[in-house]
Design goal:
4-stranded mixed beta sheet, alpha/beta, 4-stranded parallel beta sheet
Length: 351
């Protein structure tokens, strides 16, 4: 039996692999063709890291990843494309791999640590010491997760701690260990639009002191001195200070015996795989070519003519690299969701 598929390259290749794999599992002979030219397949280039059982089962990123973790290598100078969603269908954002940072707050952290001013460098050193105390590697890529991940502030904190501790192999201290007894009231958690002008206003009206008083005595004074030192630096490191203050304002609302929420499996997989993804520069850096290789390995082929091809839904590939990764993941997941109906249509077509 021969089946011909027509649709976007991502949809057709994924559907073809799923059909051929299922046919092998049932011991049936099935020939799958894709209507089109393999030379016109839209490339989906790494580096990238995500959690996708569909792509992993189709052979994408399995050289470095494990389970449903997908790691696709790419040039060391190219930002790492990251998605935290279960199938890579949403929430793509870049993570810098050169050590300079992509998010403005991360870039300011790097500048703080490399500053010529001894007082600024000392502030950077103290921040690295604080990260070490939490068992978290003071890597710019870890801060990228903390500042740029499209999720809630406390989830971003848990994500960064998980990734940073995976790099160091340590556990560190719980962040809630440094919180004192809950006061009767606290300022409302800060929003992402929080800026240096708002922070200075909080220092004047006492709201900043309310947040700092939430810390245990052993750490409150050094943290307060660090904040004052950062304020004295002016706008040069204002985005870093504001980004950290925003996350801390959410942490300060937790009870002293509280804990951060557990990460979703997709988030945990990406956090664990971040270190490997940052160093992934060798190998097949095109996810589409990986799909094509598996399709051909299973016996699939291409054709330029077909009388009754099966139409698969799918949009054209966008130009932007992050958008193209999302397009690939949406197409692959859509094909997997319709695999049962497609299989029934192939083995038991309507008369």
């Amino acid at each position: 039996m021969t089946v011909t598929l027509r649709g976007s390259s991502a949809s057709a290749l994924t559907a073809g692999i799923l059909l051929l794999s299922r046919a092998r599992g049932f011991g049936q002979r099935l020939q799958v063709e894709i209507l089109g030219n393999p030379d016109e397949i839209a490339p989906v280039m790494g580096p990238a890291v995500l959690h996708s059982a569909v792509l992993a089962s189709c052979g994408v990123g399995r050289e470095l990843g494990s389970g449903a973790l997908v790691i696709v290598p790419g040039p060391a100078t190219q930002p790492l494309a990251v998605s935290l969603s279960a199938f890579g269908e949403t929430g793509w954002f870049p993570v810098d791999r050169t050590g300079g940072g992509h998010h403005p707050a991360t870039r300011e952290f790097v500048a703080l640590c490399r500053a010529r001013d001894p007082q600024a460098r000392e502030l950077g050193r103290k921040m690295r010491v604080a990260m070490d105390a939490l068992g978290c590697s003071p890597e710019p890529a870890v801060l990228e997760l903390l500042f740029a991940s499209p999720t809630a502030p406390l989830m971003r904190l848990a994500l960064a701690l998980r990734a940073g501790r995976e790099m160091t192999g340590g556990r560190g201290n719980s962040v809630t260990r440094y919180l004192d007894q809950s006061p009767e009231s606290l300022p409302d958690p800060l929003s992402a639009e929080f800026n240096l002008e708002s922070l200075l206003q909080m220092r004047q009206d006492g709201r900043m002191q309310m947040l700092l008083d939430r810390l245990r005595l052993g750490v409150r004074d050094p943290v307060e001195a660090w904040v004052e030192g950062m304020v004295d630096q002016g706008e040069r490191y204002g985005q870093l200070l504001c980004a950290l203050t925003e996350v801390y304002s959410h942490l300060a609302g937790l009870p002293p015996q509280g804990m951060l929420a557990p990460l979703l499996p997709s988030m945990d997989a990406v956090a664990v795989g971040l270190s490997a993804a940052l160093g992934a520069t060798d190998g097949n850096g095109d996810a589409s070519q990986s799909l094509l290789e598996i399709f051909r390995f299973l016996g699939g082929r291409f054709t330029s003519d077909a009388r009754h091809p099966i139409e698969l839904p799918g949009d054209p590939a966008p130009d932007d690299r992050l958008a193209r990764w999302q397009w690939l993941c949406v197409s692959a997941h859509r094909s997997a969701q319709s695999a049962d109906a497609l299989w029934r249509r192939v083995v038991d077509p309507p008369q």
